[in-house]
Amino acid sequence: MPPDRPALTEQEVLAHGGWHPRYARVLAVASDDGYGFAVVDGNGDGAELEAETWVWDNGRWTSAGSSGTGPLGQLGQVETGGQIDDAYYAYGRAPGRQSITIEFDGHRHRIPVSSHGAWAFIKVRTDPERRGFPTPTA
Length: 138
Known about the structure:
Elements: H1 10-16, E1 25-32, E2 35-41, E3 49-57, E4 60-70, E5 79-84, E6 87-93, E7 99-104, E8 107-112, E9 118-124, E10 135-136
């Protein structure tokens, strides 16, 4: 990511997402070329997660939308199909793994799994001829 667009961080999500840092925890975060994605546990108990999209705007990360995604225990290996402009995202849960591999836009990407067992992916599509959403490989 260019130096004028730093990666979206857990700290940014908590500071600018309206979350109380004492209770909320960011389970996974990813960013690419001015777009970001985060999975947030708003009260820290795993009962209700939020999937959030972010954009780099006027020199800072800004929340672009949020949607409830259910409890942590019911988060599947992959929740995919999201898009913001030309950026496509996916997220999921892979407890006990250190990483997963995502295929997108003709490339494979190794994605770290957080200590919470969650992962997040977002990439800007670079090949307009390609179709489809990010998918995990076997």
